[in-house]
Design brief:
The chain is built from ten helices and seven strands. It has about 230 residues and is of the alpha+beta class. Strands 3-4-5 form a three-stranded antiparallel β-sheet. Strands 1-2 form a two-stranded antiparallel ribbon. It has a two-stranded antiparallel ribbon with strand order 6-7. α1 runs antiparallel to α2 and α2 packs across α8.
Length: about 230
Amino acid sequence: MRALSNSAILEVWEWAIHLHPLDRNLLLLSEALPESPNVLADWPLGRLNGALAQLFSSCFDGCLEGWAACSRCGEKVELQLDSREITGETVGDRVFVNGRTFRLPTTRDLARTLAEPDPGRAAMRLLEICQEEGDAPGEAELEAAGEKMSHADPLAEIRLGLHCPACSNAWEETLDLGGFVWSKVERRAKRLLREVHALGSAYGWSEKAILSLSEARRSFYLEMIEA
């Protein structure tokens, strides 16, 4: 996993800004890995999430910070997590339930369920897509397959336990790693563009020359402009 350079961050931000979050995740990772988005789309979801956590750690400070609204009273509850602590290995690539064989879901599979507005039907549709052998699955297989897939691919859905200090409510939220990575990429890209504008206007330097400067040198030049 290689860290993204300033130029790469600007490029991937420009390419991904109008993409769906699923496609955005694939593009972000393809900039840091030798695999193309098309190859990454067939990775199990947990492997992809693990790679996103590594990307966050290599490019940023590793600290995932955010907040969630309490599911009972609406109070803002802050959350903080070190992305380097997000670990888990995929165990196998298939699960077996009642004589049926299911492979682990991928981003490509998930994309095929986006048009289904009902979460229950979307989950069943995903199970149907992932089935390789056996009769058509039913509700009985949905829960059992879900449990086995969670065990085989523990990072496919990362659930965080939260506690509200206002009403003592305890609940879980799904961690959107791709959203955290994109938020950091977008923030840094916009900051870099502001710096390019300021330094280019003051000194006439090109974008390439400015981005090649270290953060410390860019900051010092900006301080002198402001002074």
